Amino acid sequence: MNGTKPVLSSESKPRIGPGFRLQWEPAQERHVLLYPEGMVQLNGSAGEIMKRCDGESSMAAIVADLEQAFDTTGLEPEVRGFVEMAGQQNWLRWDA
Predict the structure, then answer these.
(1) Where are the domains of the chain?
(2) Cβ–Cβ contacts within 10 Å for residue 92, how many?
(3) Domain 15-89 CATH assignment equals 3.40.50.2300
(4) At 88, which helix (H) or strand (E)?
(5) What 3-state DSSP class applies to 8?
(6) What's the confidence (pLDDT) of residue 2?
(7) Which residues pair with 15 in a beta bridge?
(8) For the residues of 9-73, what is the DSSP string, one character each?
(9) Does residue 96 register a pLDDT over 80?
């Protein structure tokens, strides 16, 4: 291992990273990402993306599902940007 993360492609299947747990927090009316040292409060868009990162759905499928759910198009750059950032934070991981 050289320490670099696999390249994110449309076929990548992101999943929640080890040590993290995604859950809906009713008191805050948002998704949160829990980990042993604390919690990350996710905004609405981040929560919608993260809950689709199940390790089974490809990036292409996640984008298509979001575009259908929100009746829009062109979300791929924003979704990719978030998933890449979440990967840098170890919130998400995927295989090449």
Answers:
(1) 15-89
(2) 26
(3) no
(4) helix 76-88
(5) coil
(6) 45
(7) 54, 93
(8) -TT---EEPTT-EEEEETTTTEEEEEETTEEEE--HHHHHHHTT-BSSS-HHHHHHHHHHHTT--
(9) no
What pLDDT shows up at residue 3?
55
If you ran DSSP here, which 8-state letter would residue 90 be given? T
**In which residue are the tokens 């390790």 written?**
55
11-64: pLDDT as tens digits: 999 999 999 999 999 999 999 999 999 999 999 999 999 999 999 999 999 999
Torsion, Cα of 32, 75, 5, 23 (10° steps): 20
- For residue 18, which phi and psi values (nearest 5 degrees)? -60, 140
1 has pLDDT over 50: no
User: Number of C-alpha atoms within 13 angstroms, CB side, residue 32?
Assistant: 12
Percent of the chain with pLDDT over 90: 91
